[in-house]
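Field reference: "sequence" (input) and "structure" (output). Example, Aspartate-semialdehyde dehydrogenase:
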Amino acid sequence: MRKYNIAVIGVGAVGIEMLRVLYQRKFPIANLTVLARSARNIEVDAKKYSVKTISPGMFDGVDIALFAGTEGEKGAAVTYAKEVVKRGGVVIDNGADFRMDPRVPLVVPEVNAKDVKKHKGIISNPNCSTIQMVVALSPIHKKFGIKRVIATTLQASSGAGRSAVRQLKEEVSLIAQKGQADLNVKAKNRSMPQQLAYNLFPHIGTFAEAGYTNEEWKLVKETHKIMHDNKMSISATTVRVPVRTGHSESIYIETKRPASPDKVRALLSKSAGIIVIDDPKNNLYPMPKDAEGKDEVFVGRIRKDPFNKNGLWLWVVADNLRKGAATNAVQIAECVLLCP
């Protein structure tokens, strides 16, 4: 089997998971280059990596560059993606900079792997909460049609980066030291807009059109693009919760044709990348602590809306750093190089 030259750009939470996933999935690597703004040595699962300072010349000979993703005009992909493409490589970007560019495929392999073939050098990895939602909804949409989605996401601190995880840990420690007499604390290095320990808040991203945050609009626009259906009505609320890793989503759907919970369970149980855990009478349903470190999307609490014959509820959980970011990016790379 041919092997390929791979570059991973960024060694934050997602970049570390990319290195881990490449190794665990036995990706056929000839040479691995790890790049960041500054050189250093890191260790991931007892494997040592020499991180080099990023520069255009570092992309010579690279077949695929996995950008872990800093969004906005200072993002590494905005600065260096053209350098990769100019040298004949393919960019897979985890940031938001290219997601809605009509020339750039936005891909979740279980849903729209064929879109990979349309790339012109850059492929975007969707937002973490979008990825797990479309994995769960795509089989239902193909079988029964979906005309409406109402989603509430419960997103872990790691979705805001390692500094947010540190903030949560520090806040929990401060409250424990106070004996919980006062649940209000102030972390020294706060990266989130509110205290997260013993709390949650409906504010992820920046507030934008119609009072929704840009994170909520991502769920709408990215789902439309991935599923090739702009007519699907989607509305979302995104909530930050005191969980380390693993996003959960409460999703209400209205299908075009009636779909019983049993049929949906059977359908999802046979669908790629999904594990159904749905036995609430025995306290069995997906939870973020059980999804952490896994690549599948977990679905449970599948039930009918008693007031709408075409209404269904689902509870969807996934590791936001893996399937929601690193694993999905590596799966895209596998499609680029290995799929017929």
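The chain has a mean pLDDT of 95.
The chain has three domains: 4-126+325-338, 130-156+200-320, 161-198.
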